[in-house]
């Protein structure tokens, strides 16, 4: 009796390569699982049949009741047999013995997603299996599988191929990737190009896996500049696109961690790197992330803004954004001590490190920034933060006193600080 791992090909969705739960047929006559084909049509906006790449006459889905009954009958027979009923049951008890044969055949099987799911399940929580996987050149195999899947996905928009790429990354994410040899393998183009693609257009789970892999590579690299081995501009743009998509707080936090590490390790390239990050819209993305961000995301976004505002291009982009000053001011004395210190640093950079525009100074009054700076003088805080506050108030106090909206007591403080 066939196990679920050996499901007849007719029962597998051509997109997900998983057993179909609700088979439906499109106008080209091909049957898919409803969830997968609806995602293809309505989430990705495709108007072609994924299996044939022919344009569909309509997006109507016809339930395939006959196939659904046949699958249900097959499942009933499989469940009464003595054979294992799932890939995990079949693979886990003999994981270490089967790994070499599974890895040897995975590049040639048409059921890569099923095989990769089995690998992922067998290595979850099993350090010995993970060690064997690495010893049997598993990372190299995954790299080739991902590279091929990405090529097929890009060439014809094959959704099932991209799903293979996502599942391969899920397997890779189970590994510790803590040694130099493993990091070197992951940093090869056949692994890194798919990582960037997953960050750009993968599912939420796939993006988390990609972020996890990049974070492990970053941590294991130590003093080594791992960004020398990747296209930093492409990586930065992909991470910013992810942040712009309104990702979850967890995903945003991980993306910001990787951005922080990338920008820190790229400092050796000088002002050109900071300018490049600004040119792809980093300041705008970070500013617009702040209003709805939690503490962790806020602190990371402010740290990156601080770094970018150290270069003229970053200060210019900040000053030109109509909400930038207000978004940063809002975090002062509101989120955390670290966020307040970082926010003050950003405001100091855009108002004192170079000649500020009147718009920046106007926005600091309108957003309540001047009042908050004065409040910081009365609050507990680091000496360096207070020094920057005093500097801003002394340099621009005369300008701010012109505003009739500033209360008299604040004007007195500003006059006193002159």
UniProtKB/TrEMBL annotation:
<dbReference type="InterPro" id="IPR058678">
    <property type="entry name" value="ARM_PUB"/>
</dbReference>
<protein>
    <recommendedName>
        <fullName>U-box domain-containing protein</fullName>
        <ecNumber>2.3.2.27</ecNumber>
    </recommendedName>
</protein>
<dbReference type="InterPro" id="IPR016024">
    <property type="entry name" value="ARM-type_fold"/>
</dbReference>
<dbReference type="GO" id="GO:0061630">
    <property type="term" value="F:ubiquitin protein ligase activity"/>
</dbReference>
<comment type="pathway">
    <text>Protein modification; protein ubiquitination.</text>
</comment>
<dbReference type="Pfam" id="PF04564">
    <property type="entry name" value="U-box"/>
</dbReference>
<dbReference type="Pfam" id="PF25598">
    <property type="entry name" value="ARM_PUB"/>
</dbReference>
<keyword id="KW-0833">Ubl conjugation pathway</keyword>
<comment type="function">
    <text>Functions as an E3 ubiquitin ligase.</text>
</comment>
<dbReference type="GO" id="GO:0016567">
    <property type="term" value="P:protein ubiquitination"/>
</dbReference>
<dbReference type="InterPro" id="IPR045210">
    <property type="entry name" value="RING-Ubox_PUB"/>
</dbReference>
<dbReference type="InterPro" id="IPR003613">
    <property type="entry name" value="Ubox_domain"/>
</dbReference>
<dbReference type="InterPro" id="IPR045185">
    <property type="entry name" value="PUB22/23/24-like"/>
</dbReference>
<dbReference type="InterPro" id="IPR013083">
    <property type="entry name" value="Znf_RING/FYVE/PHD"/>
</dbReference>
<dbReference type="InterPro" id="IPR011989">
    <property type="entry name" value="ARM-like"/>
</dbReference>
<feature type="domain" description="U-box">
    <location>
        <begin position="6"/>
        <end position="81"/>
    </location>
</feature>
<keyword id="KW-0808">Transferase</keyword>
């Amino acid at each position: 009796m066939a196990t679920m791992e050996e499901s007849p090909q007719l029962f597998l969705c051509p997109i997900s390569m998983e057993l179909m739960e609700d088979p439906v047929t499109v106008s080209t006559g091909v049957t898919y699982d409803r969830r997968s084909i609806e995602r293809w049509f309505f989430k990705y906006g495709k108007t072609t049949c994924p299996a044939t790449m022919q344009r569909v006459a309509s997006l109507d889905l016809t339930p395939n009741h006959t196939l659904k009954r046949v699958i249900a009958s097959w499942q009933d027979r499989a469940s009464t047999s003595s054979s294992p009923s799932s890939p995990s049951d079949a693979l886990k008890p003999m994981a270490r013995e089967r790994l070499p044969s599974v890895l040897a055949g995975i590049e040639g099987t048409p059921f890569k997603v099923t095989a990769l799911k089995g690998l992922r399940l067998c290595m979850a929580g099993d350090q010995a299996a993970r060690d064997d996987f690495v010893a049997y050149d598993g990372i190299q195999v995954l790299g080739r599988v991902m590279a091929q899947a990405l090529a097929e996905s890009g060439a014809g928009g094959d959704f099932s191929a991209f799903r293979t790429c996502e599942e391969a990354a899920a397997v890779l994410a189970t590994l510790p990737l803590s040694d130099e040899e493993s990091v070197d393998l992951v940093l090869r183009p056949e692994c890194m190009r798919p990582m960037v693609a997953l960050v750009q257009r993968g599912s939420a789970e796939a993006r988390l896996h990609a972020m996890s892999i990049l974070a492990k590579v970053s941590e294991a690299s130590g003093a080594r500049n791992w960004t020398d081995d990747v296209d930093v501009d492409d990586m930065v743009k992909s991470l910013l696109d992810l942040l712009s998509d309104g990702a979850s707080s967890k995903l945003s936090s991980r993306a910001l961690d990787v951005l922080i590490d990338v920008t820190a390790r790229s400092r050796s390239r000088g002002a050109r790197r900071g300018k490049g990050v600004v040119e792809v819209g980093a300041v705008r993305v970070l500013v617009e992330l702040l209003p709805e961000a939690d503490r962790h995301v806020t602190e990371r976004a402010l740290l990156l803004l601080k770094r970018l505002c150290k270069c003229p291009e970053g200060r210019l982009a900040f000053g030109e954004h109509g909400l930038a000053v207000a978004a940063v001011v809002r975090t002062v004395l509101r989120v955390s001590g670290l966020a307040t210190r970082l926010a003050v640093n950003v405001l100091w950079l855009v108002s004192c490190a170079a000649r500020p525009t009147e718009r920046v100074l106007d926005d600091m009054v309108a957003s309540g920034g001047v009042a908050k700076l004065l409040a910081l003088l009365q609050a507990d805080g680091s000496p360096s933060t207070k020094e920057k506050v005093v500097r801003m108030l002394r340099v621009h106090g005369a300008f701010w006193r012109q505003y009739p909206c500033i209360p008299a007591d604040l004007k007195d403080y500003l006059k006193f600080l002159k």
